[in-house]
Amino acid sequence: MVEGACIKIETMTGYSVYSKAKGDIMRALKVVTSFFLASFLALSIVTPSSGSPSLMGKKFANCAALNNVYSGGVAKNSKVTNIGGATNYLPVVKPRIYKANSSKDRDKDGIACER
After folding, report:
1. What count of Cα atoms within 13 Å lies in the side-chain half-sphere of residue 23?
2. CA triplet 44, 49, 55: central angle to 5 degrees?
3. DSSP assignment of 48-107
4. Residue 103 pLDDT
5. Where are the domains positioned within the chain?
6. Which of 42, 54, 62, 90 has the fewest CB atoms within 10 Å of its CB?
7. Spatial separation of the C-alpha atoms in residues 78 and 83, rounded to whole Å
8. Which pLDDT does position 22 carry in this prediction?
9. Is residue 5 classed as helix, strand or coil in its secondary structure?
10. What is the pLDDT along the chain (115 residues), one digit of tens a residue?
């Protein structure tokens, strides 16, 4: 498998699931080789260089741009708490987006661009 590659499972209705978890490729291959399910699923390997923004963290130019998409900011995980005072919106947990925009987390509480 290519370094940093992900597995993409796509249904015929267009719903896609991306995963980097170990063992997912083998499980997906078993599913695809199943005669019944093979007609409903498509399998492809997506490398980061050709991947969609949902696979990688999109880097925003500033907090205003990030807040246009994620009004409450982006948290690195569900366990972080805001230390910067009261906010008007809840942050969305998006580890990849947070990692790409961690420089915008001024108070280093694990939430970038909270408001």
Report:
1. 0
2. 65
3. TTT--TTTSPPPPSSHHHHHHHSTT-EESSTT----S---SSPPEE-HHHHHHTGGG-TT
4. 96
5. 6-46, 63-112
6. 62
7. 14
8. 54
9. coil
10. 455 556 565 555 554 555 555 565 556 555 555 544 445 555 555 545 444 555 468 999 999 999 999 999 999 999 999 888 888 999 999 999 999 999 999 999 999 999 9
9: its two tokens? 């499972």
- For residue 25, with 0-12 CB atoms within 10 Å meaning exposed, 13-18 middle and 19 or more buried, which class applies? middle
Residue 100, both tokens = 């790409």
Torsion of CA 97, 13, 18, 37, to 10 degrees: 170
